[in-house]
Amino acid sequence: MAPTAPAPTPTPPTPDLTPLRDQALAELTAARARTAELTDAVTDAELTAQHSPLMSPLVWDLAHIGNQEELWLLRRVGGREPIRPEIDPLYDAFAHPRADRPNLPLLGPADARSYAAEVRGRVFDLLERTPLDGGAGTGLLADGFAFGMIAQHEQQHDETMLITHQLRKGPAVLTAPDPASEAPYEPPPVPEVLVPSGPFSMGTSATAEPWSLDNERPAHRRQTGAFHIDTVPVTNAAFQAFIEDGGYGEPRWWAPEGWEQIRRNDIGAPLFWHQEAGQWLRRRFGVTEPVPPDEPVLHVSWYEADAWARWAGRRLPTEAEWEKAARYDPVSGRSTRYPWGDSPPTPEHANLGQRHLRPAPVGSYPAGSSPLGVRQLIGDVWEWTSSDFLPYPGFRAFPYREYSEVFFGSAHKVLRGGSFAVAPVACRGTFRNWDLPVRRQIFSGFRTARDV
Residue 326 and residue 222: Cα distance in Å, rounded? Predict the structure, then answer.
């Protein structure tokens, strides 16, 4: 009797990667549409001008976006030959300070647009042909990470370019509806929320959040004591009370470096504010308007946020406290992806993606509340925390040290939550931003906390 042949080993089903590919295509397309909006809104002369020494010329950002896309997707992932290798040094963000970039032999507007478009066309071909479930042990292709990283990179530069638009002089060239006309609204029921003591899961992993960036990883247990945190961000009206009480003239509220900075630069109000006939006005994307009392205060440095908190008898929350207030569900004990749960943001949840050109009034987006009842943690304004930008336990730089690791230390403070200028793809409950404590041109605000 002939031996029975062994049963064939079943072939595992091939995963359907179409949704992941479609997601990468959609995010790359959305980012490029926004880039075009920001760069097509001004003349070629304004594209090549430097509107502030704090920022690059817009045309540098445009070509840098294309260059990073070529370096990581076409060359690293696709193994393609360089398109224009001679321009690599010009668009290396670490090689040239922003103030020096106008003096470089940069691509002009037409060449920058043509280069970015050529790279994108080849990237779309690569996306169609490349498996997204891993490759050569690098991890760049796992769940389409490299494509998600580049979509996030472009959207981050779009936010930078929007900051440049805010710094630019001249009439308005960007328009958007006011959030107050569209945002869902409910008055906050209480001024602050109690966050209980105990551990929670902070950060994330590639498994839970495949497009998360290295400084968000790994997930780890973190302990906090009980504390109260503001239900909503600090408003313009509340900050104005600090000004009127002489807060900018009282050194006891200020960290020594902050006091030196406001004295040296004669700072007496948030950036872009000025007083006229007894009324506070602000300049916003080329429009001068009264400062709206019920919006979160915007364009304040860490030193200003810290001084206001001290004046109010409160403090800035630590980064861990902020994330616990945003993600911790006391019923299940787990940490959610976003304050409202695990589903991606919608216009009902948060003010994101340059859909509006200003923060929404406090109390907006009740559907975006955290399980503990804290509002507007995502979108509207970046929120300063008291924490230095440091690695999590077990941090590993990926895919390059210059994204996060070179910035770790006491020089930079952490901001959380995102602003109206942040795209949903680059904003989640674990996302970490950082900047120097003197920075005011960024879309930054804050909320405060106090010990129980």
Answer: 14
- State the pLDDT at residue 17: 59
CA distances from 425 to 90, 148, 345, 346 (A): 27, 8, 9, 12
Q: What integer pLDDT is reported at residue 22 of this predicted model? A: 94
More confident residue, 131 or 205: 205
Tell me the residue range of the domain where 163 lies: 18-167
Instruction: Determine, yes or no, domain membership for 6.
Output: no
Total domains, the chain: 2
**What percentage of the chain has pLDDT greater than the value 90?**
93
Looking at the structure, do residues 329 and 373 belong to the same domain, yes or no? yes
Q: CA 275 → CA 84, 171, 243, 289, 290, distances in Å?
A: 50, 20, 12, 11, 10
pLDDT at 417: 98
pTM: 0.94
Task: Tell me the C-alpha distance between 144 and 158, whole Å.
Answer: 21
| CB burial of residue 288 (10 Å; 0-12, 13-18, 19+) | exposed
Instruction: Confirm if 202 and 222 have CB atoms less than 8 A apart.
Output: yes
**Could you tell me if 159 and 182 lie in one domain?**
no
Residues 69 and 109 in one domain: yes
